Amino acid sequence: MNRRRSTRVSMLLAGAVATIFAVGAATASASPSAAVHGGTTISAHVTGERAGQICRIAAPGIDMPWRPVGRDGTVDLDTGPLPAGRHEARVVCEDPRVGDASVRTVGRVEDVFTGRWAPVFEFLHHHRLEVLTPRGR
Question: What three-state secondary structure class fits 8?
Answer without folding.
Answer: helix
